[in-house]
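Students often ask why inverse folding is considered easier than folding. One informal answer: many sequences map to the same fold, so there is more than one right answer. In these notes we will look at a single instance of the problem. The structure comes first.
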C-alpha cells in the first residue's frame, strides 16, 4: 500500500498548519468567526462595534454588490458566480468567506440578489437577516487582518487575539501587534485591492489619498488617531454619516484685508476670502 503513504504525505503538505475547514452553511461559518463570546468581557467595545458600519459590511452595501453579481458578472462578463469572483468584493466586505465552500459562496451570492430583488417582503427580510451574520468583526480585525507580512511570518495563529498592548487574558491568548495601530492595517481594506489574478478592484481609494495627499504633505496622524482615539470614538468608527466627525473635517478659513485702492488714499474697502479646508486625512468624499 505504498500509494496510500504518498497520498497521505501529499495531503499533509497541502494543508498548512492552522488551515481551517471549509464551511458549508452560513451558521457554521459565522460560528467559527463569532464575536458573540467577546461581548461578556469587552461589553463597551462590542456595543460600539455593533453600531458601526463594520458590523453591517454586507447589508449596508447590498445594492452595489447585487449589481456586481447580477449585472457585472452575469450580463457584462457573462460568467457564472464563483467563490473567486465573490471574493473580489468579500476580501474586504466579509473576509471569512475565504473559508466557505464553493457551494456556500454561491448561496451567499444568491441571497444578496434575493435581498435586493425579491418581491416577497418576508423572503427579502429573511435573506438580509442571513447576510447580516457575515461582517467585519472582532475576529477579522484582531486575528485575520493583523499580519500584513504573511510570507515572512506565516500568518496569524488561530485562537490568538492580537491587540495594541497584548494585555494578558484568562479567556484567550493575546499577542501584542504593532501592525494594529498603523494606517496600513486599515489600508488593507480602505484602498485598492489586488485579487490573486492580478486585477485591481477599485471600490475605494482612500488609503492612496491618505498616503499621497496627507502623509505626503506632512500629516502625521494615523487612521486610528482620528477615527478611534480622538474624542473617545473607539470602535464606532464614525465616518461620512456622522455630523460630529464630518464637522471636524471641514475647516473654515476667513481672511479679511482692508485694501488701499489709490496711492495715498485709504478706502474703507475689504476683501474677504472664504476658504473651505479639508482637515480629514484624505480626500472627501471617498470613492
Ligand atoms: C479593498 C477592499 C474592498 C474591496 C475589494 C471591495 N470593497 Fe466595497 N467597500 C470597501 C470599503 C472600505 C467601503 C467603505 C468606504 C467608505 O465608506 O469610504 C466600501 C463600500 C462599498 C459600498 C458602499 C458605498 C457607499 O456609498 O456606502 C458598496 C456598494 C461597495 N463597497 C461595493 C463593492 C463591490 C460590488 C465590490 C466588488 C466588486 C467591492 N465593494 C469590493 C472595501 C472594499
Ligand atoms: C475594523 C477593525 C476592528 C474591529 C472590527 C474590531 N477592532 Fe478592536 N481594535 C482595532 C484597532 C485598530 C485597535 C487599536 C487602536 C489603537 O491603536 O489603540 C483595537 C483595539 C482593541 C482593544 C484594546 C484597546 C481598546 O480599545 O479597548 C480591544 C480589547 C479590542 N480592540 C477588542 C475588540 C473586540 C472585542 C471587537 C469586536 C466586538 C473588536 N475589537 C473589533 C480594530 C478593530
Ligand atoms: C472572559 C473574558 C474575556 C472574553 C470572553 C474575551 N476577552 Fe479579550 N481580553 C480579556 C482580558 C481580561 C484582556 C486583557 C486586558 C485588556 O487588554 O482588555 C483581553 C485582551 C484582549 C485583546 C488585546 C487587547 C490589547 O490591548 O492588546 C484583544 C484583541 C481581545 N481581548 C479580543 C477578544 C475577542 C476578539 C474576543 C471574542 C472572540 C475576546 N477578546 C473575548 C478578557 C476576555
Ligand atoms: C477587513 C476589512 C476592513 C478593515 C481591516 C477596516 N475596515 Fe473600515 N470598513 C470596511 C468596510 C467593508 C466598510 C463599509 C461597510 C459598509 O458601509 O457597507 C468600512 C467602513 C468604515 C468606516 C465608515 C465609513 C463611512 O462611510 O462612514 C470607517 C470610518 C472605517 N471603516 C474606518 C476604518 C479604520 C480607521 C480602520 C483601521 C483601524 C478600518 N476601517 C479597518 C472594511 C474594513
Ligand atoms: C486627520 C484626521 C484623519 C485621518 C488621519 C484619517 N481620517 Fe478618515 N476621516 C476624517 C474625517 C474628519 C472624516 C469625515 C469627513 C467627511 O466624510 O466628510 C473622515 C472620513 C472617513 C471615511 C468616510 C469617507 C466617505 O466619504 O465615505 C472613511 C472610510 C475614513 N475616513 C477612513 C479613514 C482611513 C482608513 C484612514 C487611514 C488610512 C483615515 N480615515 C485617516 C479624518 C481623518
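Output (designed amino acids):
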Amino acid at each position: 500500500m505504498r500509494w496510500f503513504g504518498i497520498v497521505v504525505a501529499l495531503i499533509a503538505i497541502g494543508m498548512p498548519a492552522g488551515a481551517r475547514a471549509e464551511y458549508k452553511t452560513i451558521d457554521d461559518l459565522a460560528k467559527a468567526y463569532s464575536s458573540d463570546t467577546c461581548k461578556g468581557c469587552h461589553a463597551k467595545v462590542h456595543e460600539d462595534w455593533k453600531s458601526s458600519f463594520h458590523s453591517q459590511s454586507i447589508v449596508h452595501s447590498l445594492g452595489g454588490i447585487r449589481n456586481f453579481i447580477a449585472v457585472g458578472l452575469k450580463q457584462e462578463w457573462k460568467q457564472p458566480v464563483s467563490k473567486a469572483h465573490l471574493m473580489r468584493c468579500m476580501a474586504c466586505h466579509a473576509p471569512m468567506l475565504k473559508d466557505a465552500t464553493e457551494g456556500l459562496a454561491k448561496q451567499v451570492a444568491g441571497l444578496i440578489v434575493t435581498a435586493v430583488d425579491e418581491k416577497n417582503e418576508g423572503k427579502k427580510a429573511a435573506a438580509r437577516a442571513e447576510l447580516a451574520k457575515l461582517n467585519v468583526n472582532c475576529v477579522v480585525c484582531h486575528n485575520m487582518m493583523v499580519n500584513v507580512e504573511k510570507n515572512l511570518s506565516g500568518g496569524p495563529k488561530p485562537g490568538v487575539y492580537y491587540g495594541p498592548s497584548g494585555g494578558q487574558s484568562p479567556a484567550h491568548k493575546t499577542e501584542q501587534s504593532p501592525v494594529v495601530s498603523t494606517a496600513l492595517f486599515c489600508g488593507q481594506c480602505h484602498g485598492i485591492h489586488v485579487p490573486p489574478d492580478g486585477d485591481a478592484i477599485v471600490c475605494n481609494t482612500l488609503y492612496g489619498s491618505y498616503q499621497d495627499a496627507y502623509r505626503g504633505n506632512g500629516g502625521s496622524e494615523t487612521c486610528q488617531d482620528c477615527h478611534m482615539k480622538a474624542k473617545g470614538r473607539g470602535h464606532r468608527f464614525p465616518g461620512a454619516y456622522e455630523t460630529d466627525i464630518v464637522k471636524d473635517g471641514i475647516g473654515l478659513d476667513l481672511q479679511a484685508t482692508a485694501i488701499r485702492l489709490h496711492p495715498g488714499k485709504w478706502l474703507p474697502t475689504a476683501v474677504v476670502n472664504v476658504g473651505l479646508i479639508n482637515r480629514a486625512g484624505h480626500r472627501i468624499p471617498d470613492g
